[in-house]
Amino acid sequence: MSIVGTLIRIALTRLETFPGMPVFSLVYAQWVGCLIIGIVAKNKSHLFSWYYPLHPGISTGLCGSITTFSSWQLGIFKEFANYDANPHTRGKNVLAALSVFLVTLAMSLNGLTVGHHIGEITEPKDTRVEHKIIPRGFSIRYMTTVDYITIVLGIVSWLAVIFAAIFGKGQKDLAFACVFAPVGALTRWYLSFYNGKLPHFPIGTFSANIFGTAVLAALTLIQSGVYVIPIGCDVIQASIAATHCDPGQIFKSDDGCNTCLCPESGLKFGAGCTRMFCFDSSKCTPGESFTAKDGCNTCTCPDSGSKEDNAACTAMACGPIDSGNQCDPGSIFTAADDCNICKCPPSGKKDAAPCTLKACPPPDDPSNSCTPRDSFVASDGCNTCRCPDSGLKTDAPCTKMGCAVNNETCTPGTSFLAADNCNECSCPSSGLKRDAACTLKECSPSANEDMCTPGSSFTALDGCNTCTCPESGIMSQAACTVTECDPTATIGHCTPGESFTAKDGCNTCTCPESGFKVDAGCTRKACPPVEDNNQCTPGESFPADDGCNSCSCPDSGNKSEAACTSKSCAPVEKCTPGESFSADDGCNSCSCPDSGIKSEAGCTLKACP
Asked: What is the 3-state composition of the chain as percent helix, strand, coil, each rounded to the nearest 5?
């Protein structure tokens, strides 16, 4: 059956192949094969009852050899590639390939439908079918005479075409096609057993078709050689030109306006390009005027609407061009950012030069500098920051008070009193007081300033140095020692991000990334005054805690460092601060002081009996 099907397909193809044929010849073989399949599918049961191998022989052997999926696919690809080198454009290649695909598919479906209708007409009226019991596999025991005759005819037919291919002097292509026809039919039949693996897709038949297509493609290339058409070369060349360039070469960017400098890698995507704002400078409105390329003369747009089409221009003698924008074509110069480099374009204009696009470090900003460990007012005008070791204000830890947004306005150019009620400010052009420039006169201390007693000593913020309170009584103006403190001291350490109570026992600080409390930003709430019982005036005497001995205040002003007398004193009577108790006279009452020492208590002075 497969040999007969192959002969039918070749005969139909040769019959319909002639110069000027209206449609490709393969479509007729596809139509005839599908027509027979439609008839066989409708009479499937009757074919099985007549002779069981007849159905697979006709459907797989005969029709499978008349129709050809692989030749159909080869025809589509040949049209895509213009294999016959027909004189038409590339777009016509696509249309031709679509025509082969759609026409063949439509004719195949048409043949299948027509065959189905013919099968309904030719179907025997007696629909009773006697099913025969047949073996599941090949067995000589169950073979009939018809089986033997069929096998003999098949072997003889195959040997005949083999000898014809070997010893025949002509039509060798026809003979070889018949030689391989049974091999293809058996391969399709065995692979069809896998169609049941997927419920909605004939995977076996599909695999047979793909395998046949691959074999046909390989044999076609072997027979005719690898055919490289111009479109392939054009695509490759266009791809290379679109992504590659010669190092140092100047080329136009994709916008057609800016220019780029090809890098050493030779890849366009790594090139440095100018960043001019571009528009279609070659177009204009007919009759309107535009500036000539020299930036001086004026031209009138021609009717074509293109500036390049002989526009009429004035011929004034123009002044010299600004030399600051000029460079020697091909020379290298530093960009305005003092970091990237540029190559002068053929026009000799720096603003059209392609430059590298390196990520450059930000320029030094004097306004962002500060002296390490100095304090300064934050940008919100409310919080206070401490300058870090880097000397950059942007790295400084600051207090995080909830400050009111100062959106107060003023009349630009007028003066107003600063928040300290001392200095004067000049209203800026923005009309916002927070942006104003103010005088820096030395004013009397504000109520919000941290105050101290002039001449007294106190511990600096670093917990190590000692400061002497100035005559102004403002702590921030105090002169302090500059002893090198131990940064690893436990007292100065904290966990970054955690909060801790400030030394005043009132404000709260946030530990900075450095982990040193001295660098922490703290709130600046106005706290109630705290009496420091551990401070004294250097050189003065004060009672010891036992209420008996006396001490002399040291130069540090810390009572805990004072030298005291060591007299043998009577036991000190204690009381609970704030509570009342009876005086020794049994008449008056006393109030226990904060020290908890009864002898320091204040008592009533009633006249007792």
From this structure: 35, 15, 50
How many Å apart are CA 401 and CA 380, to the nearest integer?
A: 10
Task: For 550-602, write each residue's pLDDT tens digit.
Answer: 787 877 777 777 777 666 666 667 888 878 888 777 777 787 887 777 777 77
Which phi and psi angles does 159 have, rounded to 5°?
-65, -35
Whether the per-residue pLDDT at 204 is higher than 70: the answer is yes
Q: Which residues contact 318 (CB under 8 A, 6 or more apart)?
A: 294, 295, 296, 297
CA distance 375 to 516: 16
Helix residue spans in 296-428 (DSSP H): none
Q: How far apart are CA 446 and CA 444, in angstroms?
A: 6
Q: Give Cα separations from 319 to 101, 296, 297, 299, 326 (angstroms).
A: 69, 8, 11, 18, 15
The count of residues in the chain is 609
Token reading at 49: 């009852």
Task: Say if CB 59 and CB 134 are below 8 A apart.
Answer: no
Kindly tell me if the per-residue pLDDT of 446 is higher than 50.
Answer: no
Supply the pLDDT for residue 225.
56
Task: Return the minimum-mean-pLDDT range out of 123-132, 215-224, 468-477.
Answer: 123-132
pTM, entire model? 0.33
In whole angstroms, what is the distance from residue 182 CA to residue 166 CA?
17
DSSP 498-514: -EEE-TTSSSEEE--TT
Distance, in Å, from the CA atom of 210 to the CA atom of 396, rounded to the nearest integer, reads 71
Residues 120 and 38 sit within 8 Å (Cβ to Cβ): no
- Rounded Cα distance between 344 and 326, Å, is 9
List the structure tokens of 311: 């526009």
Nearest to 151 by CA among 161, 163, 140, 141: 140
Q: 228: number of CA atoms within 13 Å, CB side?
A: 5
Question: Tokens representing 229?
Answer: 């058409």
Local structure of residue 481 (DSSP, 8 states): -
Q: What angle do CA 82, 19, 9 make, to 5 degrees?
A: 80
Question: What CA–CA distance (Å, rounded) separates 487 from 297?
Answer: 72
| Helix, strand or coil, per DSSP, at residue 291 | strand
Instruction: Express each pLDDT in 238-285 by its tens digit.
Output: 555 667 788 888 887 777 677 788 888 777 777 778 776 555 556 788
The pLDDT tens digits for 394-426 are: 777 776 554 544 567 888 888 887 766 677 788
Rounded CA separation 77/97 (Å): 7
**10 Å Cβ neighbour count for 228?**
9
CA distance 7 to 55: 19
| Residue entry with tokens 């046909």 | 216
Token pair belonging to 211: 């395998």
The DSSP annotation for 340-374 comes to SEEE--TT-BGGG--B----PPPPP-GGGB--TT-
